[in-house]
Amino acid sequence: MKFDTVTIKDIAKALNLSTSTVSRALRGSYEISPETKKLVLEYAEQINYRPNPIALSLKERRSRAIGVVVSEIANTYFSQAINGIESIAYNKGYHVIITQSHESQEREKVNVQHLVSRSVDGLLVSLSSETSDISFFKELHEKGLPIVFFDRIPDEIETHKVVANNYQGAFDATEHLIFQGFRNIAHITSSAFLSITKERLRGYKNALEKHGIPFNETLIKHCNHGGMIVEEVEEAVNVLQKGENKPDAIFCAGDRITMVCFGIIKELKLNKELGFTGFTNTNLAHLFSPTLTAVRQPAFEIGQVAIEHLIQIIESKRPITKFETKMLDTDLVVRESSINVNKEKIKAKL
């Protein structure tokens, strides 16, 4: 069965008015009398008339739609960021089309091509863990498509970018483990070329350096699919446990990696031996056993700032040439998983 929508022509025919009169009445034009406006608007409401978005986009040369490209909606960080995006977009009259790359550069490109073919007004992008070549985005940006990057950002494209303070979050998490007496702190992270990987690794290294702990390359493990492939994380944990320099704590850099790794060390019954902290925005961290110490990012606010910047570019009557990288603070929430039980026992004896 074909779905028939009500058109301006239907309203005009029913009220014995011209289509141009109905159109102007719906727009609230001063050329139409208050009586006619009232007649048209009441009838339109009665028959549940809604403007055709395709026709409007052709007329305004805007679709009022924004494409969002993330790795995975199930990732707590991205679901919260999307909520922030939609909270602003809806109030500004924009619809949001969400796509998932599942950490695949190829799928990311296909998704963007589809969004562009749908004539979205702009893109909000967080790069996949496989994306090392951003020439595709660069080409779209140079052609004038408004793009704002958030979370995982490229250096090569000059546009607005919104991130968390990844360096400080990683530094704080690592230093906290050091304060607990841990020294062989492993770092399980994502693909090496992602901006978040570089920033969090730098924070980890600098915390070690500050406290005179030598950096050990063998304690760094990269999971190139960001934790979406469980076997990658399992292998990282197993290699660390079998290595000569066995870790006494693990710091994970990423929401999905943190959750998967925490589950693995519990299955291996290592959670009582290892200090543990990571990046995650889950609202259930306090229900885990042990409760989970984590760096929490302002994901909702990042989404809001990103969409505000994008709408600013879209609606600007002049080309924008000055851009900023907005950085929001993280928050380390300390719980049981990072507390060194042996240290507490030593304190109790003193």
Automatic annotation (TrEMBL):
InterPro entries on file: HTH_LacI, Lambda_DNA-bd_dom_sf, Peripla_BP/Lac1_sug-bd_dom, Peripla_BP_I
Biological classification of the source: Bacteria, Pseudomonadati, Bacteroidota, Chitinophagia, Chitinophagales
Protein name listed in UniProt: LacI family transcriptional regulator
Keywords: DNA-binding, Transcription, Transcription regulation
Residues of the HTH lacI-type domain: 6-60
Highest taxon above the source species: Bacteria
SUPFAM superfamilies in alphabetical order: lambda repressor-like DNA-binding domains, Periplasmic binding protein-like I
GO MF terms held by the record: DNA-binding transcription factor activity; transcription cis-regulatory region binding
Organism: Paraflavisolibacter caeni
